[in-house]
Amino acid sequence: MFLAATDHYDSSHHALAVLLGLNGLRVSEACETNVEDLAVERGHRTLRITGKGNKPATIPLVPRTARTIDLVVGERHDGPILRRRDGQRLDRRTAHRWVASIGKHVARQLDGTTCSPVAWDHFWGSVRSGDGMIVGALVARQELR
Prior knowledge:
Elements: H1 2-5, H2 11-21, H3 27-31, E1 38-41, E2 44-50, E3 56-60, H4 63-73, H5 92-109, H6 117-129, H7 135-140
Antiparallel strand pairs: 1-2, 2-3
């Protein structure tokens, strides 16, 4: 429902949602990604990130995420993947507002409950630890060897 709700927003909102939801990135990791960090390794689209504790990692991108990022990046060859409307890098505060806005849209479609970024993260964590519905999220947190 959350990812579907991003259809009412621009492609940057959708890219943030798939990076967080399908690839399991933290908000700070998603905001710090650059176009130069995109690559192809062994036939898979990958993204280099700096994880928790400044630990570098290369994660495979879920196909839907790769397609969405391609739409956001367009013909750019450098700079941040996620940008605000003014062209500046998306920061954590703005990302929080975007997720809250999408969550409010979802809440209006449902029963009026709220969906904060923390609640959304807990939801995806429970889905990932469940029956493997989102395989990409399970794989995304592991480094390619």
